[in-house]
Amino acid sequence: MYSEGMDKENYVVGRPRSEQARAAVLHAVDDLLVEIGYAEMTMKGIAERAGVSRQTVYRWWSNKAEILFEASAIDAKLELAVGPADTPLAGLAAYLEALVRFLAHSPAGAAYRALLGEAQHDDAVAKLLSANDPLGDSAAVAIERAFGQDALPIPLDQATALLIGPAFFWILSGRDPSLLAPRRLAEDFIRDLQARPAP
C-alpha cells in the first residue's frame, strides 16, 4: 500500500537513516493491517515489525491511527489522481472508477475503511479523518475540473459528498462493487446538479 517514492517526495525528514526508519514504519503498518487487522495492532508491534524503537515511532506519530492514516493518504493521493478528460462526464466517470477501485480493492482503501470504522467510537480518529480527507480533496479536484470553481449550484463540500456518497455507501455497506456503474453514477451526479437552481 504505502508508496516509497511518494514518501520521499513529500515527507522528507532529514537524514537518510531517519527517512528509512519512517518508511519502514509505514510499510510495517500496512503489513500488520493485512495480517492481524487494525484492532490487534499496537505501537510496540509496529515498531518491532519495522525494526525500530518505540521512541523512533513516537517521534513522528502519537498513535497507530496516525500512522495508518498517513500511509493510506499517501497512496490515496496517487490512486485517486485522474488526469483531464475530453468531457465532464468522462472525467467524473474516470474519477468514480478510481474511487471504486480504491475503496473496494486497494490495500490503502482497506486501511481507510478500517479507520472509518474506528472513527465511529474513537473521537481522536474521527478528528484525524475530518481534518484531512483525501477522498473529499480528490473529489473536489475532479468536480472543479469538470465544472470550474464558480459554476456549482451548491457548495463544493456538498458537491463532493454528492459525488462520493453513492459508491461510498454501496461499498461500505458490503454490497458487490462490481454492480456499480461509475458512468451512470456520474450521469446521475451531473443531472442532479443541473436540476438545482443556479447560485
How would you describe what is shown here?
By secondary structure, the chain is mainly alpha-helical. It has two domains: 4-70, Arc Repressor Mutant, subunit A (Orthogonal Bundle); 80-195, Tetracycline Repressor, domain 2, CATH 1.10.357. The chain contains eleven helices and no strands. Helix 3 packs across helix 4 (54-60) and helix 5 (64-79) crosses helix 7. The model is unreliable at 4-14 (pLDDT under 50).
Write the layout of secondary structure elements.
Layout: H1 4-10, H2 16-36, H3 43-50, H4 54-60, H5 64-79, H6 88-105, H7 107-119, H8 123-131, H9 134-147, H10 156-172, H11 182-195
Compact description:
The protein is mainly alpha-helical and 199 residues long.
Task: Give structural attributes.
72% helix, 11 helices, Tetracycline Repressor, domain 2, mainly alpha, Arc Repressor Mutant, subunit A, elongated, 199 residues, single chain
